[in-house]
Write a structure and sequence with these properties.
- This protein has 256 residues and is an alpha+beta fold.
- 27% of the residues lie in helices and 25% in strands.
- It has four helices and 15 strands.
- A five-stranded antiparallel β-sheet has the order 8-7-9-14-15.
- It is globular and about 45 Å long.
- It starts with 6 loop residues before the first helix and ends in a 9-residue tail after the last strand.
- The model has no long low-confidence stretch (mean pLDDT 97).
- The site of one magnesium ion has 6 residues, from strand 4 and strand 5.
- One magnesium ion (MG) binds next to strand 7.
Length: 256
């Protein structure tokens, strides 16, 4: 069931999103060659707690194997759900950072991919095209249109760029819980409800350089490309109003 949010709820979700984007702005300069991803996770945890939020990802999943970090850090062939570790970031890495904050029950969700040091032109293009796919998807998310327009727009742009679309994971409704209906696929598939005012969606293309297939590692979390080729991931939380779509999280990689 899709839960439509009223304006007061969207105000709360917006506040959570702005907090999350403020965190990302401070985090980005720390993501550099030689840094352990676990150190970044500790920093993120401290930042969110100090700001008065709760890390929304920490402890999610089954009680037997809860996610141990406050942020997902997925490097190179890791697509999503990378667990922070002693791994050191190296020049040439693509580092995807995916985080969420629970601020008084209002949940935000955002992801970016950073190219560290000297990356190949193809890897740089993957990062750029994936971010463009995100904005194509958001452009298709309009009150009165149909849900599958989003996946159609994302897929079209990814294929134009010569890349493939991860279809085993998708975006989602968000705001009052981390994962709500509807599923927001990055290809046109599944139910195709009309988009309505009050929907809050996490739109998040995951785009691969090689094959679209992915698999989950034995740790139960880390999703990697089936062929070991690089992947990128960009995500915004957006809210639909009768006459416009507002991006609640902010563009954190450009100078404001
Ligand atoms: Mg996310
Ligand atoms: Mg998400």
């Amino acid at each position: 069931m899709i839960r439509l949010k009223n304006n007061k709820q969207i105000d709360g979700i917006r506040e959570s999103c702005h907090m999350l984007s403020a965190m990302f702005r401070e985090l980005i300069p720390l993501v550099k060659e030689g840094t352990e991803t676990l150190d970044l996770d500790h920093w993120v945890h401290g930042w969110i707690i100090k700001a008065g939020g709760k890390p929304a990802f920490l402890g999610v999943g089954s009680p037997k194997n809860p996610f141990p970090g406050s942020i997902c850090i997925s490097v190179n062939d890791q697509v999503i759900h990378g667990i922070p570790s002693k791994r050191k970031i190296a020049s040439g890495d693509l580092v995807s950072l995916d985080c969420g904050i629970d601020l008084g029950g209002y949940i935000s969700d955002q992801a970016i991919t950073l190219a560290i040091g000297r990356v190949s032109p193809e890897a740089a293009a993957l990062v750029r095209v994936t971010e463009e796919c995100l904005y194509k998807g958001i452009g298709a998310a309009r009150t009165g249109d149909r849900l599958l327009q989003i996946g159609r727009a994302v897929q079209g742009h990814a294929h134009e760029g010569g890349f493939t679309v991860v279809h085993q994971f998708c975006g989602h409704g968000v705001g009052l819980a981390l994962h709500e209906d509807p599923q927001v696929h990055n290809i046109p598939r599944g139910p195709n409800p009309k988009l309505s005012a009050g929907m809050v969606l996490a739109i998040e293309p995951m785009i691969n350089m090689g094959v679209p297939e992915v698999k989950t590692l034995d740790d139960g979390w880390t999703v990697v490309t089936a062929d070991g080729a690089y992947s990128a991931h960009w995500e915004h939380t957006v809210a639909l109003f009768p006459d416009r779509t507002e991006i609640l999280t902010e563009d954190v990689t450009k100078v404001p």
